[in-house]
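User: Okay, second chain of the day. Same drill as before: sequence in, structure tokens out.
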Amino acid sequence: MWICKEMITCFARNGFDDHGTVVFKVLSCRVYSNDDGRIKLIRVFDWAKLGRFRRFSYPLIVSGAIRLMGAVWLFGLFSHGGKFHTGWMDANPNLIPLGTSWLWLFNAWDSLQFPLISMFGYDHPNYVRLPAYPLFIRFAGLLTGNYWFGAFLVTQIFALASVVVFQLLAEEYMKPSEALNATLLMSTFPFICVFMTLSYSESLFFFSIICSWYFYKKGQIFVSSLFAGLASVTKIYGILIFLPIIVDLVSLKRYRGLIYGMIPASFLMSWLVFCYRSSGDVFASWNDEKFWTHGASGDGVRLVQAILHHGLQGVVACCSGLDPTIFWSVALFVIVVARIWQVDRCLWVYAVSLSGLLILTAPFYISLLRFLVFIFPVWLTVRVRSPWVAAVSVVALVPLSLIVWLFSLQVTFIG
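Assistant: Same drill. Structure tokens below.
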């Protein structure tokens, strides 16, 4: 008869690390013995898995708490005489059903267009918004019976999933504790936090772009290509994530892998074909941008034109009305991008190409504050060893995120 004597902590060999050191997993075991004095160990729990679960739960808890705390605070702030009301409700009366008016907390500016596309399809000038995010909203709306609630669900699910997959990727480049801190700082940074809380396509884009590179790092290039395709029909520049993959494949002389580039290219081509068949304009996404800039060229285009025609003197006339903090932010961003070279040279190619494209084509330069922070390799340069430093930084970032969220609901353009 086997009798349980005690619980002990034992170690099981789990292979070798990069330096050839034997790695052990910590296990909880029950010790059993019988009348003959023989013993056996029965594993009941793997503490390493518990530690990993806890490590990944912290950013999720913080992200969820910010959303809940912010929603409660803002709902009270915009409620007068027991009635909830924001400025967006005046401009768009009866758009969101009265019974779910709290969803106005998660809608502002362009976010209103995505559920409308999912309900009524495409028409000018909405071809500028690519189809992946509206398709997810349509699916969620059909399941829940409310497209606005569907948009809320899709956004929050992909936002939290982005936090998890970024932490997984970060652990490929740094220690788990550093990856945890980097994830906390990334997820609480105001523009990332707010634009993955409001019903924008950023959460889906961020998730798909990170997954594409993560699965490539894991050697699953087919899955990586599918996510690259998803990214390319979420935001048109999402296809650039395949650029570092091409660079890496060529450097390793794995030329056969280049054929997988046809997958994201086919995603993008299918969208262009749809644009042509539904609107008669294969470049409808680009041409519809002019509506949102009121027929004028975007800030990026105007800057390039000014330099080409008048040299650096043209910058004075072109940019005199722009907020100087934009240039300070871009200058700081250039320094951060330079650090990506030390992290991963292939990702440096992606960061430089995408940031350059955004700077030159941005419709409004204030939007760069939103676009540039979603270039995920930037956050792989953040290495904070001290949990106290990370905690203090999060405490400082959270109220800033809530303020930016407040500004968006007050019909203040934040990017």
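The mean pLDDT is 83.

User: Thanks, on to the next one.
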